[in-house]
From TrEMBL:
Residue ranges of every copy of the Thiolase C-terminal domain listed in the record: 344-483
Descriptive protein name: Trifunctional enzyme subunit beta, mitochondrial
Family: Belongs to the thiolase-like superfamily. Thiolase family.
Reaction equation(s) it catalyzes: an acyl-CoA + acetyl-CoA = a 3-oxoacyl-CoA + CoA; hexanoyl-CoA + acetyl-CoA = 3-oxooctanoyl-CoA + CoA; butanoyl-CoA + acetyl-CoA = 3-oxohexanoyl-CoA + CoA; decanoyl-CoA + acetyl-CoA = 3-oxododecanoyl-CoA + CoA
Coiled coil: none
Entry annotated with the keyword Endoplasmic reticulum: yes
Keywords of the record: Acetylation, Acyltransferase, Endoplasmic reticulum, Fatty acid metabolism, Lipid metabolism, Membrane, Mitochondrion, Mitochondrion inner membrane, Mitochondrion outer membrane, Transferase, Transit peptide
Encoding gene, per UniProt annotation: HADHB
Stored Gene3D superfamilies: 3.40.47.10
Annotated organism of origin: Amphiprion ocellaris
Protein's GO biological process: fatty acid beta-oxidation
Subunit architecture: Heterotetramer of 2 alpha/HADHA and 2 beta/HADHB subunits; forms the mitochondrial trifunctional enzyme. Also purified as higher order heterooligomers including a 4 alpha/HADHA and 4 beta/HADHB heterooligomer which physiological significance remains unclear. The mitochondrial trifunctional enzyme interacts with MTLN. Interacts with RSAD2/viperin.
């Protein structure tokens, strides 16, 4: 990679053209693959960050309010169609909120505001934050609203909470997220909806019979929620496959990373490290107390799976992708002053954060690459200052592509307007308790899991700074720096 920026401008123009062509056709040029595939990024070949003396300064600033994570919980994340199948999204959100109340003992009327993130809205509870909050027993005097920003919806809920506290509007805010893929809204076709609405307004029997007579079999075809970009009509899995091809990420690298994620998650689960998980008594069923998608496999078993999106030559499979998941999360965020006054020992400081946005066609999943250097600059830190990394794992290929982009001077100069690369996380600091590939990814709930995991890992590992980064649909992304609270 050291020669990535040594070519002349002509070479850069040629390479830029090759990037776009390779991404669009899913074919990889030899030189592009050489440029980005020279170093294995699998679990068996960990990356080492550049050695640099670690700064142990605090990121507290004079005149700026310290905002803290007091506690974070989540329901077990379950494969869609399993134990939660007969519930509704607000049932899971309510369970997470009740778990947060039970763990913190915070008086229900001491919370100033509640914000929840979700992606696929249940039409009966369009403001799921409000319905879940009242169901959990919070005062009906507490305002609540729901946000959506694809896979970073609960990140947005948390940073909205930070903003409210920083502005002096609130002292204590509950943020969270929920996603329920076991039951998604399915609509009648557009023509059928128009007919039914007209039928509802029809005054005479003749008008009603005429409308009923206009219905054709084709009108009865349902519309399913699209797991695709509205602007490009392309599924995220297809985009991940093209991205992996463009960055020369092999099928073996992706399978190795997926095996790593499941193995680390299993170890963390068995060691009791996933302490944010609360037990939940599912009505009419058993008590659920752990994630059920963690399934360590062998490379031989992984290799048997066929491509899921680009057939027959793609490299993204069901096993190296995150799976459809049901789950909810919740965190209590306060000003440090309020938390201490109420007798709490915060888990971590929530420091700088950024949101980024790129082209949703060719750079859909590169949010971490763009957000990481920006948030580090805001915080005055470098990659080597970070002790704990938690990146959202949408696909193994997406993670690999981001790590290769972050390690490329050429990519930084050509696409990001930067003089040099930000560098890559050391894999011995990266997603050490598993990630979305293994723990599951309820779209609206993952952000809170990432932040809470960073706080717990910083305490367990004795680190000072953690970094959360995630990609999201629409070509968007988020990153946040978290600082350990003094022990």
């Amino acid at each position: 990679m050291s020669g990535a920026s040594s070519g002349n401008s002509c070479d850069n123009n040629i390479m830029a053209s090759m990037l776009l062509n390779s991404m669009r056709s899913c074919s990889v040029s030899h030189s592009w693959a050489m440029r980005f595939g020279a170093r294995s990024l699998s679990a068996t070949a960990p990356l080492q960050a550049q050695v640099q003396t670690k700064s142990k300064k605090t990121l507290a600033r004079p005149g700026v309010k310290n905002i803290v994570l007091v506690e974070g919980v989540r329901t077990p994340f379950l494969l869609s169609g399993t134990t939660y199948v007969d519930l509704m999204p607000h049932d899971l959100a309510r369970a997470a909120l009740q778990g947060l109340l039970n763990r913190t003992g915070v008086p229900k009327d001491a919370v100033d505001y509640i914000i929840y993130g979700t992606v696929i809205q249940e039409v009966k509870t369009s403001n799921v934050a409000r319905e879940a909050a009242m169901g959990a027993g919070f005062s009906d005097k507490i305002p609540a609203h729901t946000v959506t920003m694809a896979c970073i919806s609960s990140n947005q809920a948390m940073t909205s909470a930070v903003g409210l506290i920083a502005a002096g509007q609130c002292d204590a805010v509950v943020a969270g997220g929920v996603e329920f893929m076991s039951d998604v809204p399915i609509r009648h076709s557009r023509k059928m909806r128009k007919t039914m609405l007209s039928l509802n307004k029809a005054k005479t029997l003749g008008q009603k019979l005429s409308l009923i007579g206009s219905i054709r079999m084709a009108h009865l075809s349902p519309e399913l929620p699209a797991v695709a970009e509205f602007s490009t009509a392309e599924t995220m899995g297809h985009s991940a496959d093209r991205l992996a091809a463009a960055f020369g990420v092999s099928r073996v690298e992706q399978d190795e990373f997926a095996v790593r994620s499941h193995s680390l998650a299993k170890k963390a689960q068995e060691s009791g490290l996933l302490e944010d998980v609360i037990s939940f008594k599912v009505p009419g069923r058993d008590i659920v107390s752990k994630d059920n998608g963690i399934r360590p496999s062998s490379m031989e078993q992984m290799a048997k799976l066929k491509p899921a999106f680009i057939k027959p030559h793609g490299t993204v499979t069901a096993a190296n992708s995150s799976f459809l998941t049901d789950g909810a999360s919740a965190v209590l965020i306060m000003s440090e002053e309020k938390a201490l006054a109420m007798g709490y020992k915060p888990k971590a400081y929530l420091r700088d954060f950024v949101y980024v946005s790129q082209d949703p066609k060719d750079q859909l999943l590169l949010g971490p690459t763009y957000s990481t250097p920006k948030v580090l600059e805001r915080a005055g830190l470098s990659m080597s200052d970070i002790d704990v990394f938690e990146f959202h794992e949408a696909f193994a290929g997406q993670i690999m592509a981001n790590l290769k982009a972050m390690d490329s001077d050429w990519f930084a100069q050509t696409y990001m307007g930067r003089k040099s690369k930000v560098g890559t996380p050391s894999m011995d600091k990266f997603n050490l308790w598993g990630g979305s590939l293994s723990l599951g990814h309820p779209f609206g709930a993952t952000g809170c899991r990432l932040v809470t995991t960073v706080a717990h890992r910083l305490k367990k590992e004795g680190g000072q700074y953690g970094l959360v980064a995630a990609c999201a649909a629409g070509g968007q992304g988020h990153a946040m720096v978290i600082e350990a609270y003094p022990q």
